[in-house]
User: Fold these one by one.
Assistant:
Number 1:
Amino acid sequence: MPELPDLQVFSYNLAKLFKGKKLVKLNVVNGKRIRTPAAKLKKACEKSVLNDVYREGKELRFEFKNGNIIGLHLMLHGALKVFEKKNDAKFTIAELLFDNGKGLAITDFQGMATIYLNPKEKDAPDALSPAVNKKYLAEKLNSKGNIKNLLMDQHVIRGIGNAYADEILWDAKISPLSVANKIPATKVARLGKSIKTVLKKAEKQIRKEHPDLISGEIRDFLGVHNSRKKESPGGSKIKNVVIGGRKTYYTDEQAVYK
DNA sequence: AGAAATGTTGCGCT
DNA sequence: AAGCGCAACATTTC
């Protein structure tokens, strides 16, 4: 359930913990959703040194010196836990043991988190990539679809989930009830800016509040997608509606284009 | 104490 | 025929 800014912080902290360490052992505990056979994963990465950990869309990637990459998608409820010696985490899917004596447990009570070797390149650009600019957005928003659904569509932009879609639309002052191809060009440009600023600001905030975070999600600072708030930072009443099967928070500060 | 939350996939309807 | 809604996944948290 972590979203892009959380994952960004996790990747930074995981790199701090494990970069330059050799993977001694990789154990698959619950393989039902693991897309690469356990033996193949082990063979590809065991005994190799971890080169880097980074985020791509909603995935975390563990890149090894031998060129192999483990892709991890936490889905709704996946979580990470660092352990020493013994992993006592419940619902473990896999564990990575490094030569500094520390281990990383990947858990998911729903068993939905996925792991795969060498994930293939995706077409859609990452939300923080320079490729997500006003030209790209204008092209992709030429659609009769709902704007929030498009923002969350991983085939359009990778990395934006339910909570940050609401935050970005509020920041851009566009109602989530809007139809994509009715949004004027100037507002599309503003949306492009909001994508970057909202996500980057959130990452900074999370890092400030929880410098060593590798699990969970921090949402207490969100302006509108926040069940504890009645009013937006601008003082407008926060309303609810369901879009794409998910709870959507917005206010009348946001213009509806239909 | 019962609903809500969270992402993806795949299916069926319009 | 693009776009939407729904179910399934399974447990924790309010």
Note: Residues 134-250 of chain A form a domain with the Helicase, Ruva Protein; domain 3 fold (CATH 1.10.8.50).
Number 2:
Amino acid sequence: MTGADTKTTILDAAEGLFAEHGYDGTSLRSVTARAKVNLAAVNYHFGGKERLAIEVLVRHVGPINAERHRRLDALPTRPTMAAIVRAFVEPVFPVRAGCPAGPAAPGRDFCRMFGRMMAEQPPFLRAFLAGQFRELGHRFVACVRSTRTGIDPATAWWRLHFMAGAMAHTLLAGDGIAHLTEGLCDPDDAETTVEQLVAFVAAGLAGPPTPSRGRAARPARTQKRRSRR
Amino acid sequence: MTGADTKTTILDAAEGLFAEHGYDGTSLRSVTARAKVNLAAVNYHFGGKERLAIEVLVRHVGPINAERHRRLDALPTRPTMAAIVRAFVEPVFPVRAGCPAGPAAPGRDFCRMFGRMMAEQPPFLRAFLAGQFRELGHRFVACVRSTRTGIDPATAWWRLHFMAGAMAHTLLAGDGIAHLTEGLCDPDDAETTVEQLVAFVAAGLAGPPTPSRGRAARPARTQKRRSRR
DNA sequence: GTCTATAGGGGGATAGAC
DNA sequence: GTCTATCCCCCTATAGAC
């Protein structure tokens, strides 16, 4: 099975390069060079650059989301916000103890690549991402609403969105904070990073329902102009 | 001054294309085509693709950060978290009332472009971004710490980082939430978006200091391995 | 299955006429 | 200041020998 091994080699090489340079910034030539295989091998094994990117993602996203579902299943009927957030966050980071039994720990490369892909959202990935996260999103919203009566669905969705943003940014722009703080914050310390992220997001989720939620439902204020659209 | 007008035309065209396709995904040919100017004009006026991208950014980032500083100056000595967050968030979104006097309201294109650039962080931009945000970051951390005694600097920096992530993701992946929620959440409604973001971030910032902050300062636990590096 | 060679299309940058 | 024409690069994808 030399062929199967070639596939894995290519996937590993692509993962690192996509992480570093993004989708558009990565050439198949650089991938095959790093993998030490021939240029034509990518098209033979995957059928093109887009399919290669998708396969790099599914290799990790599948197990990660499976683990998330497993943790959501294991939640008590009235979970804490922190527990819910952990179910989403911990399977993604290369965490130390606590989830060692899970499927092959995603490497740092995948984390950065995933962050970039979330940001770039190449058109051919949108369908894939939507498919992977629609069900998970609904479960998340249901869990959040089960902990606190005052949160309407729209607010819960917004907060899921913000959580995803904080997470994606942490996965990909970690170097930035290390540089800005001159080492005070170390994104390579996965444990502390996760604790910080969980504390922040859990507090944000548990905040009071957004005042001006919905449309023309501001408490008391003279009619301002209803902007746009 | 026909020359100055050409420059602006190019900047506008580039802004839209960078927003839509990112830096790597945008060709100078597409820029000059949209701007209806000659291909050579970009190199004549800006000196290359990188310089063009930087100028597109500075055009908006400068005024936005100036406005942020102005709002931070106007903060009371013990401000609320929400007020601090507003000082950072509102100048970025195309907001309706409340900051109409500010410099030319940044359009949606710039918002998306900025989100992408924050995510991609092309190497030539890192120095620029660091320069633009170092001072602002320190002021932000100082403000946050002034509201609450228990927050150490590292935690404050982490939370600033998460805020930036939530904001960047909101700026660029707005379509995603509209699609996922089938219209329940509308990223084109800038007012509601800002209110949701401010409420979430303010609550996250005001959360209890992160338990496992710092390094080997976990309450009680056997020495675990000190990961990597 | 694996490789070489090449097709066929853009890409950024520049020289030099106007 | 503006344009045309061009240099020379790198890209993805594929055909066809081994």
Note: Residues 2-3, 6, 37-41, 44-45 of chain B lie near DNA strand D (CB under 10 Å from a C1').
Number 3:
Amino acid sequence: MTLRALYRRLLNRYGPQGWWPLLGLHGRHGTNPTKTGSVEGYHPGDYSYPRTDRQRFEICIGAILTQNTGWPNAEKALRNLDGAGLLDAERMLAATEEELRKLIRPAGYYNQKARKLKALAAFYILLGGRTPSREELLALWGVGPETADSILLYAYHLPEFVVDAYTRRVLAAEGLATGKETYDEVKALCVKGLLQDVAVYQEFHALLVERAKRQVRKE
DNA sequence: AACCAGGACGTGA
DNA sequence: TCACGTCATGGT
């Protein structure tokens, strides 16, 4: 089983996943009843997002909020921020950490994440619309390899493959990895075995997560 | 009622 | 480097 074959098989079985989920897409692409939690934000088969700067920032913030946290919880925090009008870099930076902590509580680690959001908002403003480099993102407090690659791949459409715990688990189960590789090693493995294309990277990562989730639930 | 989630950071060896 | 401990809410 090669990576490309695994990709085709998963895409054939589960269909396009429509990552990264965004707020405010109600009904635009229909719903996906196979997903748990909120489903309106996914846009299967449409790789044109983000379409606005606000959506781009939303993805960056979501990437922080979902660290070691289920998406439904992260999305609650995201909705709270949206309801407070804080899904905006300037406003988020202007908000107090106390206020942020209160709003993002459902996502867990709210002390650390409030600080991370502030750092990211300040950085985002400093960018002034420019696309950040991976090194710049990694230099930020609170942004590690997975979060950096998620931001680059889903918010900025750069071909950076995202590796997470699910990726390692599925690849190990398929005999394509041992599970002991470093982040960069797994990433290199995937890059080597796949067509180097943003849509493929976006889709394959989402499919691996879906596959792992179903496997945990014994299909 | 444990167990864990779409990680990252700090510390000591 | 590497192996742990810490951070925290909510779903299963």
Note: Residues 68 and 188 of chain A are 23 Å apart (CA to CA).
